[in-house]
């Protein structure tokens, strides 16, 4: 099973991808996932559950997906190739993101303890990134 997931990921043999991807996760996605919901939409706000979910699905998801495409398509590569790939794959990937991640993020934001949210999201993300890699082909 693990070998199949790894083969589906089809990581580049390029040495810059692991750095770009880990930088994205370490500096942007991880801290935002862990710390942003409480200050932006505190629990005292009416309908905070729905507002947090909408914030995640309509603001964070499109932005993080675009950053993922940027890192995965090799930042030092041809800009026209990157733009072409985004034009052909971004919208289908975003729609699938909304379909797949919305129920998981609802559970994550509302029922998972804060200290376990990143872990929960990373477990789901393993399969999500396998899907993204297959879309990339």
TrEMBL record:
Record's subcellular location: Membrane
Membrane topology: Multi-pass membrane protein
GO cellular component, one term: peroxisomal membrane
Keywords: Membrane, Transmembrane, Transmembrane helix
Taxonomy, superkingdom: Eukaryota
Segments crossing the lipid bilayer: 58-75, 109-132
InterPro entries: Mpv17_PMP22
Family the entry assigns: Belongs to the peroxisomal membrane protein PXMP2/4 family.
Protein name in UniProt: Peroxisomal membrane protein 2
Organism per entry: Oncorhynchus mykiss
